Amino acid sequence: MDVYLPIANLSVNGLVIVALGGITGILSGLFGVGGGFLTTPLLIFYGVPPTVAAASASTQVTGASVSGVFAHRRRGGVDYKMGGVTVVGGIFGTGIGALLFRFFQSIGQIDIVINILYVIMLGAIGVLMMREAITILRPSPEGTPRKAKKRRHHPFVTALPLRWRFYRSGLYISPLAPLILGVCVGALTMLMGVGGGFILVPAMLYILGMSANVVVGTSLFQILFVTMATTMMHALTTQAVDIVLAALLLLGSVSGAQIGSQIAQKAKPELLRLILAAIVLLIALRMLYGLGVQPDEIYTVVPI
């Protein structure tokens, strides 16, 4: 079933795009990531221009996040206070990201910037997650599995002024920490078309020290509102959102997120983290390879 994408100026197989949305929806429910870190690179590999892929993927991430938030809300897995602070920071971050996006687009280098950001971010996150997962899964000298160390927030967080209690996350920290984290994720969401969950989830665990049972739901809550703001920002500034492409992705992602959240309740967290790390590293290596191969079009097409 071939479908024409007007903004991308490309004919694609609609069933393939729906299937891609379903896969990223499952990842959303499993890991608390919006799925954009996978959607955008795969769309680029499929031939969709990076600008259109990044802008349209954020719309798909919104749909997957809605479904995932409801699933985690039913089991009390969302810290709304923490999520609200990161949402405020994320909305400010999308404004910063929009300015950077327009700048790189105006000089014809936005495609290469998106690819480089993906290689750096995915490579770093993938290595860290895989190292920790392997450490936990590897048996100790006594023959028993190693237990994960108790989460504690980073010393940088301790040094920040003001303190709020985030009861559901089990934290008493400065709201400036999740606010700054939200700004960074919002800017990356605008630039890369990702929900930011592949950065937000590790940061909530290793920097903020949040309780693991609310990290996935709270991450999806933040992603939901920030990707909504990102989609609006793209529609108003870059005009790169392809509605047909976004609709096909949404069709698969909403149902996929429900499936992922059910699997997440039964699977071993360390094993899931190892699988996610492997996927992230494979995509980073594929994009790194793409950076070393001369493209068909050397320059980005900039709309007038």
TrEMBL record:
Q: Which InterPro entries match?
A: TM_pro_TauE-like, TSUP/Inactive_protease-like
Membrane topology field: Multi-pass membrane protein
Cellular compartment(s): Cell membrane; Membrane
Segments traversing the membrane = 12-38, 44-71, 83-104, 110-130, 171-199, 205-228, 240-259, 271-289
What is the source species? Parerythrobacter lacustris
- Main localization of the protein described in the UniProt heading: membrane
The entry assigns this protein to a family as follows: Belongs to the 4-toluene sulfonate uptake permease (TSUP) (TC 2.A.102) family.
Its protein name is Probable membrane transporter protein
Check the record and name the Pfam families matching this protein. TauE
Q: Which UniProt keywords apply?
A: Cell membrane, Membrane, Transmembrane, Transmembrane helix
